[in-house]
């Protein structure tokens, strides 16, 4: 079996991927033999503490708070159509990755109304810290790692209840990316109750769990997804550069197969759990 579709890819239309390039990414997909890619560009309406991003994105930062620009929908959709014409053998899906969609229901609805988006991903990047929102890497220096992760997991059911705009939930282990070195190593079993509650809420809300391969998903989490009623998974490299496309997808597909998931009817479809 070849690689599965990469369902989470960024291009130059994502505010933090200015080195990305949609056409070059499509060319890379052809080289890798990927059957499909989804360009899920960042949509971030939540102003958040810039931290180490302040220097790189100085034009977006005021008084230490980063305000991301709104997605250029018209330019994005035009670029997708050019790529579809240039690479007709590659299935190219439109999409977006919406951060904290439950906090911005009206704004997200307005953006979705501007075009057809075939893969809408929901992500939780920021948590409230005092009167500001901040990424986990901004929280860890002054809050215990276990407290941050529990707060993150507790927000997921609220996100499911508060937004029906997204079908796929990505990187359920997002804070682990920046897990502080001085803390005890991350172990899913330390957060079993909270993880199961979050996964159960996603499953009950009929959402799809993305196996994000920026870092490997702990196999125990996927096992619990099945046990909590999760029926579908997708795969996403979260690539912000063409050369990162497809990273870890083979290993993720093997993990999904070992947990009873198999490909859908079309290459870009979520994988489905067997009974």
UniProtKB/TrEMBL annotation:
Keywords: Amino-acid biosynthesis, Histidine biosynthesis, Hydrolase. Pathway: Amino-acid biosynthesis; L-histidine biosynthesis; L-histidine from 5-phospho-alpha-D-ribose 1-diphosphate: step 8/9. GO terms for biological process: L-histidine biosynthetic process. It comes from the Bacteria. Its EC number is 3.1.3.15. Pfam families: PHP. Residues 6-213 form the PHP domain. The keyword Transit peptide does not apply. InterPro entries: Histidinol_P_phosphatase_HisJ (IPR010140), PHP_dom (IPR004013), Pol/histidinol_Pase-like (IPR016195). Residues 255-275 are annotated as: Disordered. GO terms for molecular function: histidinol-phosphatase activity. Coiled coil: none annotated. One of its GO terms (cellular component) is cytoplasm. The keyword Amino-acid biosynthesis applies. It catalyses: L-histidinol phosphate + H2O = L-histidinol + phosphate. Belongs to the PHP hydrolase family. HisK subfamily. This is Histidinol-phosphatase. It comes from Kribbella qitaiheensis.
């Amino acid at each position: 079996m070849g690689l599965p579709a990469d369902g989470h890819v960024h291009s130059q239309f994502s505010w933090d991927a200015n080195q990305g390039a949609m056409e070059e990414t499509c060319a890379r997909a052809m080289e890798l033999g990927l059957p499909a890619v989804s360009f899920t560009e960042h949509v971030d309406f939540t102003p958040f503490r810039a931290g180490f991003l302040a220097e790189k994105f100085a034009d977006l930062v005021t008084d230490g708070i980063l305000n991301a620009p709104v997605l250029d929908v018209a330019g994005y959709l035009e670029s997708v159509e050019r790529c579809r014409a240039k690479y007709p053998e590659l299935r190219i899906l439109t999409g977006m990755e919406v951060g904290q969609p439950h906090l911005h229901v009206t704004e997200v609805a307005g953006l979705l109304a501007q075009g057809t988006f075939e893969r809408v991903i929901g992500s939780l990047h920021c948590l409230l810290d005092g009167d500001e929102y901040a990424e986990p890497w901004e929280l860890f220096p002054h809050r215990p790692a276990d407290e941050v992760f529990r707060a993150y997991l507790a927000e997921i059911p609220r996100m499911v209840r508060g937004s029906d705009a997204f079908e796929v939930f990505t990187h359920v282990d997002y804070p682990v990316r920046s897990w502080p070195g001085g803390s005890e190593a991350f172990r899913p079993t330390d957060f079993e109750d909270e993880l199961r509650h979050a996964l159960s809420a996603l499953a009950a809300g009929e959402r799809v769990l993305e196996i994000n391969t920026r870092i490997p998903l702990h196999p125990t989490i996927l096992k619990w997804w099945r046990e909590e009623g999760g029926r579908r998974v997708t795969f996403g490299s979260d690539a912000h550069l063409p050369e990162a496309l497809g990273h870890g997808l083979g290993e993720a597909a093997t993990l999904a197969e070992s947990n009873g998931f198999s490909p859908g009817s079309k290459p870009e479809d979520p994988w489905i759990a067997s009974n």
